[in-house]
Amino acid sequence: MDKIPDQKHAVQYLYPPVDPFDQRMMDVGDGHTVYFEQCGNPNGIPVVVLHGGPGGGCSPSMRRYFDPEKYHVILFDQRGCGRSKPFASVTNNTTWDLVADIERIRAALGIDKWIAFGGSWGATLALIYAQTHPDRVRNIVLRGVFMMTQAELDWFYGGGAGKFWPDLWVRFVNLIPEDERDDLIAAYHRRLFCGDMQTEIKYGKAWAAWENALASIHSSGGGHEGPGEYSRTFSRLENHYFTHAGFLEFDGQILAHVPRIAHIPGVIVQGRYDMICPPTSAYNLAQAWPNAELKMVRNAGHALSEPGISAELVRTMDRIAAQ
Known about the structure:
single chain; alpha/beta; eight-stranded mixed beta sheet; globular
């Protein structure tokens, strides 16, 4: 659950813009080709950046959280996202496919161990990847923790967040007939995958707008609609994953499997007033993971572009590099 953020308020904390020294497309099978890039120092500390969504894609600003002289930064667009092909495809697109893609990229680059860095859905994916391949991860850095539980989905799509934003919640809910409102993820799924492009764009915009409006603590609730095709793509991919509960084996799997990563140092950066991914998930994760440090950022919400969030992430990566 993450959007492309407005970086203008956080830019003062970031490193200067940097261009990739390598960009390529990798055939990962199943009809998918994944885009990935490398920037920074090819001999530096490897870090893989996992974007949010599902469906968000990478942006150039994501390169700037790392000292380019000390870090070897790898970014990639997950299946169906950004520059990866086929665009917007949900076929052969599951959490486990993405975990396998991360491993393919690591092996192709000859990296032994790297840092997993991710926010929101990217935090979910970082945790699942680390729990699947704990011998390949040296540190985990998370932002806006989302653990793909039913409770978290119920909070955002079952009325919890709506109690704080009733005006926007009503707008989101009223597009659905009353007899379908007991399961808004399923109701939106029927429309996002109905086969009629205009209907899919309409409901894609509504799905994305609800999330966008709550991303920043500074939001007035107005928000801006992204391009119709982007909103449709993002919303279809995100809804696809949420409809299938992240393709996990059971509810609460990530927290239950924390012992698998107990030896890996972690830092959790969490906005105190995150409306999309409430801090209780970050707190529960930190309680179960003694080797993790929880950094609760006051006066911050969910977005990567929150000044306090960006500042803490840069400080964290600088500290790891110094160690």
